[in-house]
């Protein structure tokens, strides 16, 4: 199936590793012009080289922290200058720390809000007016299966991802008339560095081994295994494509059946 992504200009945030990088690679493979960001230049350089090796396509990158609205604005402007427009934007960031409510400070809540919610708001503020001008756009937020079913031990994530899902659903209503779709994608347990770190934190809290944490997660998943980043990226590429023109305002999980809700 031709997704119609050839020549489309796509921004993928927080994409030097893990889910973001897999999405950037999939979009590049489908022929899109891809721009990525993350905080560490070396990681971005390596990701761009790996994507070039896998797909034969160059990737534009800029180092920035997605919690800095001015840096996000400068990045989007640089992408537009380079490629003349922005068609697709995938928001993403690192995850907040795993804490129990009694361990959180007001600063933790503010930091998680900046990291998860305000970073998506910053990208929306920059890209949606540009997409509106072109009467075509795809805005996708990467959140978590936590918006379908809160994950024990991930209080900050559970709370702020729900806010991002609310943002995406409302933007979908406000921008549909301008040829823009807005959807939210919800990864379940997918094997990335973030998940390795999380398994380490949870196992040190319980006194077990990280492998026990992975085994416990796998047991909860009907598929009986963790996801692979490219399985997540396949959905994102489809939603970003011409083919997904009538899919708007949804939150779709890629979780091997983990979340148990009917919808
Ligand atoms: P990952 O492997 O740790 O990769 C995170 C990426 O984000 C890296 O490229 C990192 O690069 C970049 N990043 C982190 N903080 C940033 C910031 N403030 N500004 C710009 N870039 C930043 O994580 P992942 O597993 O791909 O997860 C991506 C998101 O999905 C996270 O929010 C995670 O909580 C969520 N999620 C993941 C899973 C899963 O199973 N993997 C499940 C549900 C939700 P730098 O460090 O160089 O900035």
Spell out the blueprint of helices and strands.
Elements: E1 9-12, H1 18-29, E2 33-38, H2 41-55, E3 59-63, H3 69-83, E4 88-91, H4 106-134, E5 137-142, H5 155-175, E6 180-187, H6 193-206, H7 210-220, H8 229-239, E7 251-254
Parallel strand pairs: 1-2, 1-4, 2-3, 4-5, 5-6, 6-7
The structure holds NADP nicotinamide-adenine-dinucleotide phosphate (NAP).
Architecture of the largest domain, according to CATH? Answer: 3-Layer(aba) Sandwich
Low-confidence stretches: none
Structural class: alpha/beta
Span from first to last CA? 27 Å
As a whole number of angstroms, the C-alpha radius of gyration is 18 Å
Total count of domains: 2
H and E order: EHEHEHEHEHEHHHE
Silhouette: globular
Largest sheet: 7 strands, parallel
Highest CATH level, the class of the largest domain: Alpha Beta
Question: Given the structure, what is the number of helices?
Answer: 8
| Strands, total number | 7
Q: Give the name of the CATH superfamily of the largest domain.
A: NAD(P)-binding Rossmann-like Domain
Bound molecules: NADP nicotinamide-adenine-dinucleotide phosphate
DSSP strand content: 5-15%
Tell me what the structure shows.
The structure is a single chain. The chain is an alpha/beta fold. It has two domains: 9-190 and 230-254, NAD(P)-binding Rossmann-like Domain (Rossmann fold), CATH 3.40.50.720; 191-226, no CATH class. It is 49% helix and 14% strand. It has a seven-stranded parallel beta sheet with strand order 3-2-1-4-5-6-7, sandwiched between helices. Strand 4, helix 4 (106-134) and strand 5 (137-142) form a beta-alpha-beta unit. The chain is globular, with a radius of gyration of 18 Å. It starts with 8 loop residues before the first strand and ends in a 9-residue tail after the last strand. 44% of the residues are buried. The structure holds NADP nicotinamide-adenine-dinucleotide phosphate (NAP). Residues 14-20, 37-40, 43, 65-67, 92-95, 115, 142, 144, 187, 189-190, 192-195 line the site of NADP nicotinamide-adenine-dinucleotide phosphate.
């Amino acid at each position: 199936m031709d997704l119609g992504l050839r020549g489309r200009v796509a921004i993928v945030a927080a994409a030097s590793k893990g889910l973001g990088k897999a999405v950037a690679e999939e979009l590049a493979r489908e022929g899109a012009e891809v721009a990525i960001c993350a905080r560490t230049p070396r990681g971005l350089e390596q990701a761009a080289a790996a994507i070039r090796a896998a797909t034969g396509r160059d990737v534009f990158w800029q180092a920035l922290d997605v919690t800095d609205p001015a840096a996000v604005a400068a990045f989007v402007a640089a992408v537009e200058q380079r490629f003349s427009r922005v068609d697709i934007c995938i928001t993403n960031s690192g995850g907040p720390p795993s804490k129990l409510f009694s361990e959180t400070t007001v600063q933790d809540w503010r930091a998680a809000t900046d990291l998860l919610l305000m970073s998506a708001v910053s990208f929306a503020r920059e890209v949606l007016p540009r997409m509106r001008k072109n009467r075509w756009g795809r805005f996708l937020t990467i959140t978590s299966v936590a918006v379908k079913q809160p994950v024990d031990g991930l209080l900050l994530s559970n709370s702020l991802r729900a806010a991002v899902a609310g943002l995406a659903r409302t933007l979908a209503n406000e921008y549909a008339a301008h040829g823009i779709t807005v959807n939210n994608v919800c990864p379940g347990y997918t094997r990335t560095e973030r998940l390795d770190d999380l398994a380490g934190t949870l196992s040190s809290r319980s006194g077990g081994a990280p492998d026990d944490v992975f085994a416990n997660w796998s047991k909860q998943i009907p598929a009986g295994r963790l996801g692979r980043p490219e399985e997540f990226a396949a959905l994102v590429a489809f939603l970003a494509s011409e083919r997904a023109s009538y899919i708007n305002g949804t939150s779709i999980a890629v979780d091997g059946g983990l979340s148990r809700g009917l919808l």
